[in-house]
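Whiteboard transcription, Tuesday session. T.W. wrote the structure tokens on the left side:
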């Protein structure tokens, strides 16, 4: 596979997916946080009126609203913890930025490792190692485990391919 094919069929679609997923997780995280904060503030505002006999069709309105707001705060927090929107947003964004950095280093020939006859191969190894680490993290997250239950399964662990020339792939 040549560089143009790798970029167009593997790297660019991955970068697009990471960008879209990062934005979607950020929006969900901010939406749930704003909902929890707003409902919590509404509880604070309504609490002094709970003892008053404000009713509508025989239903005490303020206590009912306080219960609904409290349930909303709990539900918002539970959805944030369950779906891990903040963690996913930051992970996807960091991976996208790391891949884009490697792409720029390769395209500009800014480091010696990418500027030789096997520079493309080294770039692919680095990019795939970064993506493999994310896949391994996703597998651990989706299975609910912190450690690899099968240490002989290379698909379940991050790639051990070092970054070319021992340079750090993160800025």
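and on the right, the sequence the group agreed on:
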């Amino acid at each position: 596979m040549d560089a143009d094919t790798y970029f167009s069929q593997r790297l660019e679609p991955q970068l697009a997916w990471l960008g879209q997923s990062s934005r979607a997780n950020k929006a969900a995280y901010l939406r749930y946080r704003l909902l929890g904060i707003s409902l919590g503030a509404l509880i604070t505002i309504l609490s002094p009126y709970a003892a008053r006999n404000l009713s509508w069709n025989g239903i005490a309105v303020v206590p009912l609203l306080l219960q609904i707001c409290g349930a909303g705060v709990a539900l918002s927090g539970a959805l944030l913890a369950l779906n891990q929107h903040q963690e996913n947003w930051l992970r996807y964004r960091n991976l996208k930025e790391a891949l884009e950095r490697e792409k720029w280093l390769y395209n500009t020939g800014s480091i010696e490792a990418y500027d030789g006859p096997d520079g493309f191969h080294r770039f692919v190894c680095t990019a795939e190692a970064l993506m493999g680490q994310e896949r391994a993290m996703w597998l651990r997250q989706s299975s609910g485990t912190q450690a690899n239950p099968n240490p002989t399964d290379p698909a379940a662990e991050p790639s051990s391919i070092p970054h070319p020339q021992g340079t750090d792939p993160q800025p």
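Someone added at the bottom: The chain has one domain: 3-166.
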